[in-house]
Write a structure and sequence with these properties.
This protein is α/β, with parallel strands linked by helices. The protein contains five helices and seven strands. Strand 2, helix 3 and strand 3 form a beta-alpha-beta unit. Helix 1 packs antiparallel against helix 2.
Length: about 170
């Protein structure tokens, strides 16, 4: 979709939200759509690698970008969106090129898995994604964490298979 069309869609969406949300706050799905639209038309952000989730006006950004400026710009865009009460910026900056050449869908899968690991306190696993196939390596403290890491990966949208090679430290 070219920028002009996207701006028209964004304008229409803003008009719709404004008309339907007189004195009440903008609903979470509308906030998510607005933030995603703004990211898509911004030249400084790599929106394909940024996920946006909203709950009660709090926007959580996750994903992988190549510069700190991209991360900061994504946060500014989210923060300056109507209805946003707070922004949690969990975007990872990876300048070392480890993910160069990865498809956008594999990057999104990687980001979702890592975000869940952080949220659930799963520490130790290393994650690789290629064509929707996830390989887990590294060391964890106990078998329960190993199983939890695999379950999170399997439950992640877009994952085709999981190869769990995580070792349990004794």
């Amino acid at each position: 979709m070219n920028k002009q069309r996207l701006m028209i869609v964004l304008g229409a969406l803003l008009a719709l939200v404004s008309a339907s949300c007189e004195r009440r706050s903008v609903d979470d799905s509308a906030i998510t759509a607005l933030v995603k639209s703004k990211l898509a038309v911004d030249n400084e952000t790599s929106s394909a690698n940024i996920n946006v989730d909203t709950m009660n006006g709090v926007v959580t950004l996750t994903g992988i970008v190549t510069t700190r400026a991209n991360k900061e710009q994504a946060e500014r865009i989210a923060r300056n969106t109507e209805g946003v009460t707070r922004v949690i910026n969990n975007i990872t900056v990876e300048t070392n090129g480890n993910h160069a050449g990865m498809s956008a869908s594999d990057l999104a899968i990687l980001s979702r898995i890592k975000t869940r690991y952080v949220a659930e306190g799963v520490i130790g696993p290393e994650v690789e994604v290629k064509d929707g196939r996830v390989t887990l390596t590294g060391n964890v403290e106990n078998p329960q964490i190993r199983i939890r890491a695999e379950n999170i990966a399997r439950a992640t949208s877009g994952v085709k298979e999981v190869n769990n090679m995580i070792e349990v430290s004794q």
